[in-house]
Amino acid sequence: MRWFLERITARSSRVSFGIADKKGHEVGFAALVAKKVLKRVSNLESVECGLCNEGHECQVRNDDGVLSYVCENGGGKKLLTDEKLTVYEYDHPAFTELIAQELGIQAADATARSGDPFSALGSYTTETATTQVFYLRTHDAQEASLRFATMGNEPRVLLTNLAEVSLAAGADATRQCALADILAKPRAKTLFDAQAFKARMEGGRRVRFDPSQAQLFVDGTLVYTAGLNSPEHHFLSYLWEHWQEQATHRDIAAYMKKKLGHDVADAAQKVCHKMKSSIKKAYAGIDDILVTPTSGHYMLREPSP
Ligand SMILES: [Zn+2]
Q1: How many Å lie between the centroid of ligand 1 and the Cα of residue 51?
Q2: Which of 145, 188, 243, 259, by CA, is between 20 and 30 Å from 250?
Q3: Taking the domains of the chain in order of start, what are their residue ranges?
């Protein structure tokens, strides 16, 4: 089914499939038609002549449903079956619906399913977390980056067809999963292996910060809540935005100053230490996820196993 994923990774919203695809991938093609991902749309208007050796195109004639063509080089007439001529087209809404259905994604609402190559499929829930699932058909990393930039910081995963894409800074915390890596075995009842997807989703990020509520979660449990617009809120927002990156005290303090709208009283280093101490009073486990990777930096990271 990789061939199919390669074909739909296209800029154009219209992706057509013909006789060659059908012949080349008989089982997969039939499955896609049965699942209504490929829909027959029209018949070819001309075919290559098989009656002489000139290799020319012949117009398909339709006499009351009887299809044929006539060789203009005097090669004669040949009947055609409808089956041989049908051209199929990829149905994007049907495909995104199929992904959601087979992988166990709870659809957000049906209106999200449009011809848009970037689609919100819904949410996926494991024992530890609920993740928003998106699908990018085109592999256009910039488009996905722009869309993610307008969203919150909820855990999310981006499905692509063949391989991961390079998302811009800020959106790069998004997890990715290529559909090609979770294909079901040939001749399975489904196109995708729901168990393989589940295994990937369970190995998810254990730490989550929700900037809108200033709440910190570890393994799905709320461990710390900062005051809205408090220094601690902005401190954690910055580190979350720079997940597993070494953030300098200076950059963190500058961000806090900007967000608070006034200067922070102390030197950058002192401000940062104060923030961590303040959080630690409410949540001792902070030491395990907010670390000093090198002198002068703080970093938010996964807890040690
Ligand atoms: Zn001919």
Answers
A1: 5
A2: 145
A3: 2-90, 92-202, 207-300
Q: How far is the CA of 197 from the centre of ligand 1 (A)?
A: 52
pTM over 0.85: no
Instruction: Report the half-sphere exposure of 186 (CA within 13 A, side-chain side).
Output: 9
Say how many Å lie between the CA of residue 37 and the centre of ligand 1. 35
- Ligand 1 center to residue 70 CA distance, Å? 8
The C-alpha atoms of residue 243 and residue 18 are separated, in whole angstroms, by 46
Looking up tokens 């709320």, which residue turns up?
222
CA of 8 to the centre of ligand 1 (A): 34
What CATH topology corresponds to 207-300? Arc Repressor Mutant, subunit A (1.10.10)
Burial 117-140 (b: 16+ CB within 10 A, else e): bbbbbbbbeeebbebbbbbbbbbb
Per-residue pLDDT of the chain (305 residues; tens, 9 = 90+): 899 999 999 877 788 888 778 888 888 999 999 999 999 887 777 888 989 988 898 988 888 878 889 999 999 999 987 666 778 999 999 999 999 999 999 987 654 556 688 889 999 998 777 889 999 999 888 989 988 888 877 789 999 999 888 888 767 668 899 999 899 988 889 999 998 898 888 766 788 888 888 999 887 789 999 999 999 999 999 998 888 889 999 999 999 999 998 877 789 999 999 999 999 999 999 999 999 989 999 999 988 76
Distance 49 CA to ligand 1 centre (A): 5
Q: Kindly give the distance from the C-alpha atom of residue 85 to the centroid of ligand 1, in angstroms, as a whole number.
A: 18
Residues 53, 147: Cα–Cα separation, whole Å:
54
